[in-house]
């Protein structure tokens, strides 16, 4: 993800998370830590390929994901796929990228929060080996929705999308 991706990412963010969407400033702040030798973030976008091909950056952004690393702990900050991409494996590909980044950051475990009513995402995370470890009451505001906290130990050994398709 680069600065020029923020506007289309925000459109998707507001479509998918209307009550608790991130602001442009939140994405700018995260991207400020995503480059250079002291980078502690990894943010990616997924885009469609325009009909007839086209250069990168000319398609429609259909997904995005972000990870923050601190010491030996990583946290999935966000992951989203456009509704017309649900069931295509895009979420798994985005999560695979984040787990590879966690491994590159030398993180021993990865945490994430997911809405308790988002069973689709919970099933994805479970497929990758994440396990529930607790709740954060009222985490998602203003809807006052609880978050399920999940943890993956040893992201380098995670059951990723590519390892699942290879056997």
Write a concise keyword list for the protein shown above:
167 residues; alpha+beta; 5 helices
Description:
The protein has five helices and six strands, in the order ααβββαβαββα. The protein has helices at residues 6-16, 24-31, 90-104, 119-127, 161-165, and strands at 41-47, 61-70, 73-81, 109-115, 131-140, 145-153. A six-stranded mixed sheet has the order 1-2-3-4-6-5, sandwiched between helices. Helices cover 29% and strands 31% of the residues. The longest helix is centred in the middle third of the chain and has 15 residues, at 90-104. The chain is of the alpha+beta class and 167 residues long.
Helix and strand topology:
Elements: H1 6-16, H2 24-31, E1 41-47, E2 61-70, E3 73-81, H3 90-104, E4 109-115, H4 119-127, E5 131-140, E6 145-153, H5 161-165
Parallel strand pairs: 3-4
Antiparallel strand pairs: 1-2, 2-3, 4-6, 5-6
Q: How big is the Rg? A: 16 Å
- Share in β-strands: 25-35%
Major sheet attributes: 6 strands, mixed
Q: Any low-confidence stretches, pLDDT <50, length ≥5?
A: none
Succession of helices and strands: HHEEEHEHEEH
How many DSSP H or I helices? 5
Measured as a percent range, the helix fraction is 25-40%
| Beta strands, count | 6
User: Strands of the biggest beta sheet: in what spatial order?
Assistant: 1-2-3-4-6-5
Shape: globular
How would you state the average pLDDT, rounded? 90
How does the helix and strand content classify structurally? alpha+beta
Distance between the termini: 31 Å
């Amino acid at each position: 993800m680069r600065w020029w991706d923020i506007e289309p990412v925000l459109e998707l963010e507001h479509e998918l998370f209307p009550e608790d969407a991130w602001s442009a400033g939140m994405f700018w702040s995260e991207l400020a830590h995503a480059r250079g030798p002291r980078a502690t973030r990894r943010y990616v976008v997924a885009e469609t390929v325009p009909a007839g091909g086209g250069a990168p950056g000319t398609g429609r952004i259909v997904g995005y994901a972000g990870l923050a690393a601190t010491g030996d702990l990583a946290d999935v900050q966000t992951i989203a796929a456009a509704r017309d991409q649900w069931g295509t494996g895009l979420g798994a590909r985005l999560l695979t990228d984040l787990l590879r980044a966690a491994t590159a950051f030398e993180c021993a475990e990865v945490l994430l929060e997911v809405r308790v009513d988002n069973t689709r995402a919970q099933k994805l995370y479970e497929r990758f080996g994440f396990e529930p470890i607790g709740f954060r009451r009222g985490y998602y505001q203003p809807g006052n929705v609880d978050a399920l906290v999940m943890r993956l130990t040893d992201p380098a050994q995670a059951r990723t999308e590519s390892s699942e398709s290879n056997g």
